[in-house]
UniProtKB/TrEMBL annotation:
Residues 469-494 have a biased composition (Basic and acidic residues). InterPro entries: AAA+_ATPase, AAA_N_dom, At3g28540-like_C, ATPase_AAA_core, ATPase_AAA_CS, Mitochondrial_chaperone_BCS1, P-loop_NTPase. It holds the Pfam family AAA_lid_At3g28540. Belongs to the AAA ATPase family. BCS1 subfamily. One of its GO terms (biological process) is response to stress. It catalyses: ATP + H2O = ADP + phosphate + H(+). Residues 258-398 form the AAA+ ATPase domain. GO terms for molecular function: ATP binding; ATP hydrolysis activity. This is AAA+ ATPase domain-containing protein.
């Protein structure tokens, strides 16, 4: 065996000593290669290299874009979250926008680093792209999955580095924080959709699914700020919705389906449809506009409702005239006799049963809105307590409603309320019984809105309506008085004939 101790220290001996050492190492390595099973080679070499590399105090988590064949949700959350953490020092950013999105998204480019701090823990994110080593078959299936030929061969991941001692804090608290923030961003950026039944589209081969509904982006600009309504009513609706979306656990605890029903009633043009849009924009819930006249049976209804998604608003407008809905009691009596027939037509009880039962138990965070111009014509089954949780009366334009429209349409704020016509209009607005739609129309009539002209026109419109209302009211009073007189005469005669027998109330008609 070679020994350095006895060797003379000349250059040539040093060289021959090194050569001999290298030769011995090669011999040892080739013996090891032969004696140690092949599978253990890489393990042993990496363990040896680990022993000779200084220990790093840092830990790096690798967050791949895909987990197997599906997307890695941690990656998606990180991508959204890191958009909010881009610092002015970042040198390269990626910018994109898809037709479905309203905003431009900015994300970090490969190799770029983003620093973050969470509960005094310093973290560094790095975005890494490399060419994918996966087999061609895997790439192929990913390609078809992503429908994105150029990018599928690229392997993308985030590397999250921090001090090892914070591992638990990062996994248990920081990553959930990243998820929560990403969800909030997603929610904010969500484009609300309006789904309507498209008769031109057939069902898919299962007879179910998205083809039942066609969708467009809900571009309705109504918000609670633009709605001309009493401020207290607006506040009450917003608070009610806020409470509703926060109460997942509560609904579970009390065993109630997580749904909420609103009945909006009032004359045409008072903002019922606008309010639905404002609700959808506020909650970022998609809207399913259900036209009952296009549905022919309870079976169809069930199928259509089952294909709606959670966190959505189901709207049935003009419920009183959508259908000749049968009285619920009548329908229940007939149910046993004509069960088959009942499935072949759409009935009020079919709708109510479904909303109360099946539909509400298989979905979460559902809102249902019925609208009507005539609440008095609705079937009592629809109005009974517990069915529609909140009844909202959309009324003619009030003073505060006019203030909101004035500020929206004419840019009136603060001092502008001192306009010479303002007081006159406020004095007329409630007695003129005009709808917010009519007021909005008057304010928008000229192309370039001249405030004087617009208010002048509105004042005249209100005066004209008030005169008409007064005349109609006079006429109605006259008829009412005549009616009352006639009634009095009838009652007089009835009392004479019936004599109030069998406990009938005095003055009640006999046929009752
Ligand atoms: N309360 C309101 N606040 C703000 N704008 C309103 C309001 N009511 C009506 N408008 C305006 O009038 C237009 C028509 O209103 P909308 O369609 O919401 O009324 P509606 O009550 O649904 O009527 P209908 O009973 O005929 O369906 C809206 O696009 C909006 O511009
Ligand atoms: Mg409407």
């Amino acid at each position: 065996m070679f020994s350095l101790k006895d060797a003379p220290t000349t250059a040539s001996t040093l060289f021959s000593a090194y050569a001999s050492f290298a030769a011995s190492m090669m011999l040892v390595r080739s013996m090891a290669d032969q004696l140690i099973p092949r599978q253990l080679h890489s393990y042993i070499y990496s363990s040896l290299s680990y022993l000779f590399t200084p220990l790093s105090p840092h830990l790096t988590l690798i967050i791949d874009e895909h987990s197997g064949m599906t997307r890695n949700q941690v990656y998606d959350a990180a991508e959204l979250y890191l958009r909010t953490k881009i610092s002015p020092l970042t040198e390269r950013l990626r910018v994109s926008k898809t037709p479905r999105k309203k905003t431009i998204s900015i994300s970090i480019d490969q190799g770029q680093q983003v620093n973050d701090t969470f509960d005094n823990v310093k973290l560094t994110w790095r975005y890494v792209c490399s060419s994918d080593q996966r087999s061609e078959s895997q790439n192929h299936s990913l390609r078809s999955h992503n429908n994105n030929n150029n990018q599928s061969s690229e392997k993308r991941c985030f590397e999250l580095t921090f001090h090892k001692k914070h591992k638990d804090k990062v996994v248990d608290f920081y990553l959930p924080h990243v998820f929560a923030q990403a969800n909030a961003i997603k929610q904010k950026e969500k484009v609300v959709k309006l789904y309507t039944r498209d008769p031109c589209l057939g069902d898919d081969e299962n007879g179910m699914g998205s083809s039942i509904w066609g969708s467009v982006n809900l571009e309705h600009p109504a918000t609670f700020e633009t709605m001309a309504m009493e401020p207290e009513l607006k506040r009450a609706i917003v608070e009610d919705m806020d409470r509703f979306v926060k109460r997942r656990e509560f609904y579970k605890k009390v065993g109630k389906a997580w749904k909420r029903g609103y009945l909006l009633y009032g004359p045409p043009g008072t903002g019922k449809s606008s309010l639905i849009a404002a609700m959808a924009n506020y909650l970022k819930f998609d809207v399913y506009d259900l036209e009952l006249t296009s549905i022919h049976s309870n079976y169809d209804l069930r199928r259509i409702l089952l294909s709606t998604t959670n966190r959505s608003i189901l709207v049935i407008e003009d419920i009183d005239c959508s259908l000749e809905m049968h009285d619920r009691q009548f329908d229940e009596q007939q149910h046993f006799v004509h069960q088959q027939q009942s499935n072949n037509r759409l009935t009020l009880s079919g709708l109510l049963n479904f909303i109360d039962g099946l539909w509400s138990s298989c979905g979460d965070e559902r809102i249902i809105v019925f609208t009507t111009n005539h609440k008095d014509r609705l079937d009592p089954a629809l109005l009974r307590p517990g069915r529609m949780d909140i009844h909202i009366h959309m009324s003619y334009c009030t003073t505060s409603g006019f203030r909101i429209l004035g500020s929206n349409y004419l840019g009136f704020h603060g001092d502008n309320h001192h306009h010479r016509l303002w007081g006159e209009i406020e004095g007329l607005i409630e007695s003129a019984k005009v709808t917010p739609a009519e007021v909005a129309e008057e304010l928008m009539k000229s192309d370039d809105v001249d405030v004087d002209v617009a208010l002048d026109r509105l004042a005249n419109f209100l005066k004209h309506n008030k005169v008409e209302n007064d005349e109609t009211e006079e006429e109605a009073n006259k008829i009412e008085n005549q009616e009352a007189k006639r009634q009095k005469m009838d009652d007089h005669n009835v009392n004479k004939i019936g004599g109030g027998g069998f406990g009938r109330g005095k003055g009640r008609p006999m046929q009752q």
